[in-house]
Amino acid sequence: MDTRSLKLFVTLCETLHFGRASEACHISPSALSRAIKQLEDSLGVQLFERDNRTVTLTREGLLFQEYAREAMIQWDVIRNSLLAEAQELQGEISVYCSVTASYSFLYDILSQFRRQHPKIEIKLHTGDAENAIQRVIANDEDITIAAKPDSLPVGLAFKQIATSPLVFIAPKEDQVLDPALNKSNIDWAEIPMILSEEGVARKRIDRWFKQLAVKPLIYAQVAGNEAIVSMVSLGFGVGVVPKIVLDNSPLAEKVRVLPIEPRLKAYDVGLFALKKKLQSPLISAFWSQL
Q1: Running DSSP on this structure, what letter comes out for residue 255?
Q2: What is the pLDDT of residues 257-275, one digit of tens each?
Q3: What is the pTM of this model?
């Protein structure tokens, strides 16, 4: 079977940009344009609205996008099931995680996986961990590493790798913050906070402040835990990060962990994948490494 046209279509759906899609697929923009036109001709409908500046999916394109993604999943499942019968798995798995997770967990997982399955190619994408789960749900990635939310979305599988405490961090020494932080009863309404824009950590610190009946003084909301460590080390305020991020940060010696009570609920970190994708021998093989 030729699934090339479906892969090209799905990639264009993700980027909505012929240049970026053609680069990702290693073909020229003109070749991609011809392939999409041939697909539209075979279906008898227009899948994209396009002009010199923008590319958008039509209503028919949105419907076909659902089919194309599901068809590719099912094709990978049956193809790899057949290859598994031949005792040789090959193909591609896309993995998404933060930079911290990539060197904290992936090395041990991948080193064993590559020895057992040398013909499986790993496509690794890194970015903000708070986007990780949504990328799997949207079928943009096969597997991701992220913190487990309090409630797991329907259809999503989770496998725990580690547990990391969530800790309050402050600059190593700071003439402005130290007097306020060294009090027996810290007035949190006066402490500038550096917090995540969203995600598990943000929800837990919001609940923590609510339980104390305190409206926090938010100095900055940032994407990525590494950015929180950086801003705290520069003396902008107090932050909350998973300890595993702090342990792997080059700025760890420039901040200190505050012994704050009550403690925040710890971070459960692990793999996420769509349950239906665990039918694939490739995804199942990766999942079984833990």
Answers
A1: E
A2: 999 988 999 989 999 999 9
A3: 0.69
Domain span at residue 232 reads: 166-265
DSSP type of residue 265: P
CATH number for position 34: 1.10.10.10
pLDDT tens readout for residues 58-98: 999 999 998 998 888 888 778 767 766 656 777 889 999 98
Give the separation between CA 167 and CA 183, rounded to whole angstroms: 19
Where does residue 159 fall: left (phi above 0), alpha (psi -120 to 50 degrees), or beta otherwise? beta
CB 219 within 8 A of CB 236: yes
What is the phi/psi pair of residue 211, to 5°? Answer: -65, -30
- One-letter-per-residue 3-state SS of 191-210: CEEEEECCCHHHHHHHHHHH
- Give 106's DSSP letter: I
Separation of alpha carbons 288 and 290, rounded Å: 5
138 plus 276 within the same structural domain: yes
| Count of residues in the chain | 290
